[in-house]
Design brief:
heterodimer, A: 275 residues, alpha/beta, D-Maltodextrin-Binding Protein, domain 2, 2 domains, 6-stranded mixed beta sheet, 5-stranded mixed beta sheet, 10 helices, 14 strands, 39% helix, B: mainly alpha
Chain lengths: 275, 219
Amino acid sequence: MLTLLSRRGFKMLVLPLAGFFLAAFLHSAAAQQESTLDIVKKRGTLIAGVKTDYAPFGYIDEKGNNAGFDIEIVKYIANKLGVKVELRPVTSGNRIPMLQSGTVDLLAASITMTRERWEAVNFSVPYIVIGTKFLVKKGSGIKGYPDLAGKVVAYTQGTPWGDKLTKEQPQAKALVFQDKPQAVQAVIQGKAAAYIDDAAPLVIFAKEHPELEAVGDASLPGAMGLAVRQNDSKWRNAINFALIDMWKDGTYLKLYREFFGSDPDPKFQIYTWEL
Amino acid sequence: MVSYQFDWGVLLQYRGLLLEGLVATVELVAISLLVSLGLGVLVGVARTFLPPAFSWIFGAYTEFFRNIPPIVQFFFWYFAANFDVLPAAVIGLSVFTSAYIAEIIRSGIQAIPRTQVEAARSSGMSTLQLIVYILLPQALIRVIPPLGIEFINIVKNSAIAMTIGYTELTFQSQEIEAKTFRGFEAATAVTVLYIALAFAVVIIMHGFERLARLDIRRG
């Protein structure tokens, strides 16, 4: 056994490991003083992280193309900046690391703003306000957190609903998946009594699976924002100005009606900062 | 990203999650080690000794479960076959690995000189006695190194269980990342733990080999 921990064996293990971490650290520590706006304009392409399994925000249509409310917003912004668009699929779990590492310039991935998230990234002005619901089997009688005592509740890793569940219903057992379709499947098969997520996508899942329904309110309404890296006001401004333009020229209303099938909450607006 | 300020304190703060994940991984790995070895020996022996009319199905088993990506297999056992999380993870991991172990066992048995088989038969041993008393003991000792590799693969592939909701070590590193956004620290901690687990497997296999192989024992 000592032969294994001999000098040679250990060196063969430790040195490459140390080298790997050093390389990773140096790569991440490389300073990025340029604004993302300049980088994007120089590159000629805006790389945005979007969802691919979360209608109406981001999904894949029958032709196999990315589609959705978030995708259209990204295309509008890229158009305003005069650059092309490249879309990268992200999940609730990996989207913020993708942004922080520089893999994407922008996240249009149905991210609800929370204080914790603000400490890791920056957001644009809110571009939509949305509530959350429980996706349950029809006839389950579940209307809210009190009905979930002793039940299994599903959510996806990286969303804030796990903490919300622990707070509202500590007697529930959590079942955590990586992607949305698995959480839906868990409810269909009875592995979970409910799946907590944003309202509009759950309503769409319920339409696709008539044995399910989206009920109740799982949280206060949340404001979603497009995420950008911190300390990059130039880029954030560019995004916000584009969003304001989108609101002013009527594109926002058109897109919202197209993807949500109704008008936005009359109390919601994207302030134009004009006096 | 200008400069990354390390905050190793989050690992201390969330050591509970790391411990939970480690325990879950060890549990899954330990059970799967035993089940996959048992299944692998069964399939490998069956494939070697059954007449072709029957052995083909074990050959099909090997090809089938070796060539389908493990994540697909996990989803099958959890969603399609509707097992619970841990049973689905154990079955998925064990069946997948047993397909590789079966081939290893088969090659181990075939490496034993035929003279032993002939000698055993001429002493009146049945095939079953031949397998259990003569061939398997020798074969298993011979294939400890490649078996060790497959066992380390079990340690690595156990991470896939998180896709069916099993809250093992990789899952917990993602949880820490989701709560603190300290991905580098979380990944480092988990990397170290996985290496430690693999090391433990290697050391145990090494120990078995020295116990069993009288020719390399010291003294």
